[in-house]
Amino acid sequence: MEIDNRLTSFFAAIAQYAVLSADAEKAFAEQLHFRKLKKREIYLAQGDVPQKIAYISHGLLSYYSIQENGDVVIKRFFADNSFVASTAALITKKPGAFAIEALEDTLLVEFQFDQFKQLMHHHTELAFFWISYLEINWVAGKEEQEITLKYLTAKERYLDFMAKNPGLIKRLRQHHIAAYLGVTPTQLSRIRKEI
């Protein structure tokens, strides 16, 4: 029953980007694997060459990089009903600059990227899903994030993050939010007091 629910939510998430034929859905379903991550478990280590994409049925992950001085920079959070991967490294087949860690116990539906690419040759609607997903999340979404980080003050970035992610704020620890905003936890405390 749990697996059926995960498959249903997985294909509902795909339908937000493209409608799959019954044949494409069946072929794709045969490639899927289910995985559980414990809180603080590393899904992908920084420097690894990724091979999989995962759908988060339930849980929360951070996509981060550890800098030479030891600072942690969080680029994104991936929560329930979203797809997660080190996308640039996956496409280029090079070691990734980012790691992915579970911030909560997490349930995943995952698939091998190379197998998925082969399926796209036989089921073009899967290619439309992939293109649409990349356009929305890694082109348009990335551009907005870059502008926000470059031109808004730390307080404005925090207010923007709160407005766009009201449910996420309660699930994150202060140091995670600070690492995402590019401020120290102390600076974030000051910002919260001002608000």
Automatic annotation (TrEMBL):
Species of origin: Chitinophaga qingshengii
PROSITE patterns: CNMP_BINDING_3
Domain called Cyclic nucleotide-binding: residue spans: 16-120
Name of this chain's protein: Crp/Fnr family transcriptional regulator
SUPFAM superfamilies per UniProt: cAMP-binding domain-like
Organism classification: Bacteria, Pseudomonadati, Bacteroidota, Chitinophagia, Chitinophagales
